[in-house]
Write a structure and sequence with these properties.
Helix content is 68%, strand content 0%. The chain is built from four helices and no strands.
């Protein structure tokens, strides 16, 4: 994926965190809307966000040679915080594969939101 906000070449930790902050800004608006409406058509994007959260967590776990664990569903109002925490975890590993995975996940989320 190539979005204007993505840097050229391999992603770095700072770029991943910036991308996560942009996605989180969007989720701070959408999460409460999804919670307030509770419409079936909102289930698809919520499911995609939750799958993306799991991918971020798994990337960090692999980079740190830890077992993968399920990301808890803490509710729609905290999706933005979960994105930030998990993206920062992946970025903090400094692992090129984790950074690339996080960058790809965040680009997908941004495009889908």
């Amino acid at each position: 994926m190539s979005d204007a906000w993505r840097s050229e070449g391999a992603p770095d930790a700072e770029g991943v965190v910036r991308a996560a902050e942009r996605v989180a800004d969007r989720l701070r608006v959408l999460g409460p809307r999804w919670a307030a409406r509770d419409r079936p058509e909102d289930a698809r994007p919520v499911g995609e966000v939750r799958a993306s959260l799991q991918r971020l967590a798994d990337a960090a776990a692999r980079a740190e040679h830890r077992p993968e664990r399920p990301v808890p569903d803490l509710g729609l109002h905290v999706l933005a915080d979960q994105v930030l925490v998990l993206a920062r975890d992946a970025a903090a590993t400094g692992d090129a594969d984790a950074l690339a995975e996080a960058d790809d996940v965040l680009a997908g989320l941004r495009a889908g939101l």
